[in-house]
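Appendix B, example 12.
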Amino acid sequence: MYCVAIVVSFMYIVSSDLQAEGILRIFWRAPSSKEKQKRKTPSLQGRCVLKLDRRYPIPTDPQPSPAVCRLIIGAARPLDLLSQLTDSDNITITSSCCASCGIAEVDDMKLSECTACDIVRYCSDECKQDHKSQHKGACKKRAAELRDELLFKQPESSHLGDCPICYLPLPLDLSKSIIISCCSKTICQGCSHANELRLEEERLEYRCEFCREPTPSTDEQCDKQRMKRIEANDPVALRYQGREQYEKGDYSSAFGYYTRAAGLGDVEAQFQLAHSYQEGHGVEKDRGKEIHHLEEAAIGGHPIARFNLGWNEWNNGNTEKAVKHFIIAVTQGDDESIKNLMFAFKEGYASKDDLAAALRAHQAAVDATKSPQRDAAEAFYRNKDSINS
């Protein structure tokens, strides 16, 4: 899609002894088929001069050549001009002047962006409050667009990240990794097994694979180490403690630990909070907060949260968003999402190319978690389980 950039330069007089200059950039998107209609020049109120360079007229259809429209406006509130433009004009604004009073950003005057969107900027809280009624509709719409952009961005990896020893992605199967109580690191089964073999061969004392602290031999020692990590506000230790409290039936304590861990950036804790709001464990049921925490977990790379969001969108009839969620989950290596994506393909909601690309990415994600050490560890523990059974 070709874009037409309109650069609007304006000068305005604040008082007889104060003048300021600002630059306002408007990005004009070519209208869709429903929006193709004759554009009317907005009426200009106040004292202003309009100069148009008609050598490259603004097109109603996409054109390869950009059009430049220069406006020189002298008015007390030059942004009033923009308020006359409708939603059909498809304009996104980034400004170097206050959207309310029009004062320009200079060395001693810094503007702050709207906290919800990136459309406008303000010089003070008073201007922000004064402009709230005019900006509310556009702000809400833009905030939703930004949220969707963030939500449907492909994560670089899953929420589990990489093993801190071999630097390979951790498998989504949690049984193939361990959490160490002394440093709260998640180690892959391959590195843990290789470390055990080395210690046994060299007849050394068992120590942590990562921090080299002596390995605790009792549950009491493990709990003591974990409590030490909790006092240090370790999000993994907080989430693990929350899980233990949840399994004991103390949902209120579990919710508190999950909340602390999520506040410190733990993605799994976000997912557990969503589950708490869904079941009403430790907190009243809240569908809106459940979805919010699912989205936060999905943004952080949690494939199961992504799967649940896709399922929710599908049941609500939002098949396009559902398919996007399933595709992202599949590319992260989630097996269950493949079934849903295949079903969406059979029903005609997913294209053959999207399905094929997602399956190739799924295989690549699974292959990235494999290594000879991990294969050896898996075979060792599989044989050990078969002997014990």
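The CA atoms of residues 4 and 266 lie 42 Å apart. The chain is about 45% helix and 10% strand.
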